[in-house]
From TrEMBL:
Catalyzes the dehydration of the S-form of NAD(P)HX at the expense of ADP, which is converted to AMP. Together with NAD(P)HX epimerase, which catalyzes the epimerization of the S- and R-forms, the enzyme allows the repair of both epimers of NAD(P)HX, a damaged form of NAD(P)H that is a result of enzymatic or heat-dependent hydration. It comes from the Bacteria. The keyword Kinase applies. AMP binds at residues 411-415, 440. This is Bifunctional NAD(P)H-hydrate repair enzyme. (6S)-NADPHX binds at residues 62-66, 127-133, 156, 259, 322, 374, 441. Residues 15-213 form the YjeF N-terminal domain. It catalyses: (6S)-NADHX + ADP = AMP + phosphate + NADH + H(+); (6S)-NADPHX + ADP = AMP + phosphate + NADPH + H(+); (6R)-NADPHX = (6S)-NADPHX; (6R)-NADHX = (6S)-NADHX. It comes from Rhizobium metallidurans.
């Protein structure tokens, strides 16, 4: 399998277009189904050699056709097979009907299936193309199989999981393994689809790469270094601290300074040449006690900030971690509206009553703003987008990015990074133990440091999320934010 092809993400609609283009080019579509079904059977034999019975659940479309082929291959290999179909199997058409005609065994309505010890279930009901809630009968079977704790091998995508959004459509199988064909779908990476898919295997069934690539829009992809590597600064022997950029992080008031220091230290570790913490006067001594490599500058109000910003070398800023929400934050953001800014935490919350006041500040020109909301903060800035049940997480992030003219880092176990120009990346390298207090402060500092080094906002956000995930993996389980900072490395 072409690993680069396997790394693509195609939506179900794009994959349907691939199938149509393959058929138009003269490729036998039934031959593709035979390879798909045989691949599913091979995976069953490889991973479940001790199964007492293969239970194949066949749906009313081509996913069901794959199931009929797999059932025949398994029976020919001596495996006990029980096949159950959804709806009237006699009404199948096209390749699925042809696959059923090659199955010599009997079948029964899906409602008749009752789990038994030793069963391994092959889910060939719907796959990635489902767009509506599963029928009641399927939901009942999903529940019985889950209660019995039986392993499920899903064909293409666990039935009930939306291949475009990863969302559950009424009910969905939780598969131990999933076999998909040619490329992955967004639903394999977006939650909860990522967890429901179990171990994912991409099977090459013989569609030429040129056909697959020809239907890939490239709008949505996995967050991998290839997406942003060309923007990374080159390693030059004659570099110096100013070439590597100056990052500024704003501190909160006395007693609330730790978050800013974690952002600042992360920025320094991520490669910024200089890092300065801007501190209110009442917190200067507290910050000075804890800082060595990070510089410190005292500013209390808008006038002092505006005067300091006359220095054109000050290009990239982080505001929000521990800063406090309110008018002071809004005023500082307004002063920074022509610079590159990572707005996090309290900085985001400061605009919850009037998000458009924030968006208008950055509406013109290049993308200079990176927003890093978690679920709650996203809902405060984009309440209508967050509440739209027809949108998946990537859809929401893209809509938010376009509205704000910002790079959006929509945080979570399936963090999505979106550009206002219609690109989105799904991050997959972050371990679950990154969900700890202060982790977001570290991320903000990393992204700010990358912008200080010259990366555009979207690429800095994507690279920063990836670097953050790598640091979390190095730090290991039980990490604290302080541990995470110490494991940040430059790209």
């Amino acid at each position: 399998m072409d690993t680069q092809l396997a790394d693509l993400l195609l939506t179900p609609a794009e994959m349907t277009a691939v199938d149509a283009a393959a058929a138009s080019s003269g490729i036998d579509s039934f031959g593709l189904m035979l390879r798909a079904g045989a691949g599913v059977a091979a995976a069953f034999l490889r991973h479940y050699p001790s199964a007492r019975r293969a239970v194949v659940l066949c749906g009313p479309g081509n996913n069901g056709g794959d199931g009929y082929v797999a059932a025949r291959c398994l029976a020919d290999s001596g495996v006990a097979v029980a096949l159950f179909h959804l709806g009237d199997a006699a009404r199948l058409t096209g390749d699925a009907a042809r696959a059923r005609s090659h199955w010599s065994g009997v079948g029964a309505p899906i409602e008749d299936y009752r789990p038994a010890d030793g069963d391994v279930v092959i889910d060939a009901l719907f796959g990635a193309g489902l767009t509506r809630a599963v029928p009641e009968a399927v939901g009942a079977v999903i529940g019985r199989i889950a209660d019995a704790g039986l392993p499920v091998l899903a064909v293409d995508l666990p039935s009930g999981n939306d291949g475009r959004t990863g969302m559950v459509l009424g009910a969905a199988f939780s598969a131990a393994r999933t076999i998909t064909f040619m490329t992955r779908k967004p639903g394999h990476l977006l939650m909860p689809g990522r967890e429901l898919s179990g171990v994912l295997e991409v099977l090459d069934i013989g569609i030429p790469a040129r056909i697959v690539r020809g239907q890939a829009s490239g709008t949505l992809a996995e967050n991998r270094p290839d997406a942003w590597r060309r923007w990374l600064p080159s390693s030059e022997q004659e570099t110096h601290k100013y070439k590597r950029g100056h990052l500024v992080v704003f501190s909160g008031e006395k007693g609330k300074t730790g978050a800013a220091r974690m952002s600042a230290m992360s920025g320094l570790k991520a490669g910024a040449g200089l890092v300065t913490i801007v501190s209110p006067d009442d917190a200067m001594a507290e910050n000075a006690t804890h800082l060595t490599a990070v510089m410190l500058h005292g500013i209390d109000g808008d006038a002092e900030l505006s005067d300091w910003l006359k220095d054109d070398r000050l290009r990239s800023f982080v505001l929000g971690p521990g800063f406090g929400a309110g008018q002071k934050a809004r005023g500082f953001v307004a002063a920074l509206s022509r610079r590159h800014l990572v707005l996090d935490a309290d900085g985001i919350t400061s605009f919850r009553d009037d998000p458009n006041a924030l968006f208008s500040l950055f509406a013109e020109g290049e993308t200079r703003l990176v927003l890093t909301p978690h679920e709650g903060e996203f809902s405060r800035l984009f309440p209508d987008i967050a509440a739209d049940p027809s949108l998946g997480k990537a859809d929401k992030a893209l809509a938010a990015a376009a509205r704000a003219n910002a790079a959006i880092v929509y945080k979570g176990p399936d963090t999505v990074i979106a550009s206002p120009h219609g690109r989105a990346l799904i991050n997959t390298n972050a371990p679950i133990w990154l969900a700890t207090a202060g982790s977001g402060d570290v991320l903000a500092g990393i992204v700010g440091a990358l912008m200080a080094q010259g990366l555009p906002a979207f690429e800095a956000a994507a690279a920063g999320v990836y670097l953050h995930g790598e640091a979390g993996s190095r730090a290991g389980k039980g990490l604290t934010a302080e541990d995470l900072v110490s494991h940040v490395l430059p790209l």
